[in-house]
Design brief:
Its EC number is 1.5.3.1. This protein is an alpha+beta fold. It has helices at residues 15-23, 49-57, 93-105, 128-133, 176-189, and strands at residues 29-32, 37-42, 68-70, 74-80, 83-88, 110-113, 119-124, 150-155, 158-166, 169-174. It has two domains: 12-34 and 118-193, Probable tRNA modification gtpase trme, domain 1 (Gyrase A, domain 2, 2-Layer Sandwich), CATH 3.30.1360; 37-116, Heterotetrameric sarcosine oxidase (Alpha-Beta Plaits). It is 26% helix and 29% strand. The radius of gyration is 18 Å and the shape is globular.
Length: 197
């Protein structure tokens, strides 16, 4: 009889250390985000396909560079003038890809499942932005990177897709092969907030 394999989070082995950091009372909470469906969408945002896409997902495409918007069960993240990342918590990846691909194919657009391309961490708390600013060249103050902002940037030495969910609430999408490095970097940078002695 074949053994059933269950997927594990790429950062599962770092979860205890991240949990301990979150319980340490340092003004930081770092959690592993559950996997989401993610579809890369390519589309001419100035054409009629943008309206059809908006009707399909229930909200308009974010057209302002480096922003994101909510959908019923996920987000649409601006990546470039003709590219967005659509995430969904409740739709299986192949269904989301099929649904969006069917809509976009009539407008020379494309939808590709990239769910396995990224995993996510959430960093919250009073020092969330300070912590990430140790390794990020962006100005992460809430006035410069407010809620609804998104950026393709680097934290430490790894590429991330960074989203501002709130004033003290940030989500980082990272490639699974670099996720361990990012977790180690966060744990190391957080030592700055531990009391001396």
């Amino acid at each position: 009889m074949a053994e059933v394999l269950y997927p594990t989070h790429p950062l599962e082995t770092w979860a205890p250390a991240l949990d301990e950091l979150s319980r340490a009372g340092l003004g930081l909470v770092v959690t592993l985000e559950p996997p989401v469906s993610a579809v890369d969408v390519r589309l001419d945002a100035t054409g009629p396909g943008a309206d059809a896409f908006g009707r399909a997902v229930g909200t308009a495409l974010p057209l302002t560079p480096n922003t994101w918007t909510h959908t019923a069960d996920g987000q649409i993240i601006w990546l470039s003038p003709d590219e967005w990342l659509v995430t969904a918590e409740d739709s299986p990846p192949h269904e989301l890809e099929d649904e969006l691909g069917w809509v976009l194919s009539a407008y020379d657009g494309a939808a590709v499942d990239v769910s396995a391309q990224r995993t996510a961490l959430r960093v919250r708390g009073h020092y969330a932005r300070d912590l990430l600013s140790f390794g990020c060249s962006l100005d992460l103050r809430p006035t410069a990177f407010p809620r609804g902002s998104a950026a393709q940037t680097a934290v430490g030495q790894t590429a991330v897709l960074l989203l501002a969910l709130g004033e003290q609430d940030l989500r980082l999408f990272v490639r699974p092969s670099f996720a361990g490095y990012l977790a180690e970097w966060i744990l190391d940078a957080a030592q700055e907030y531990r009391p001396a002695g």
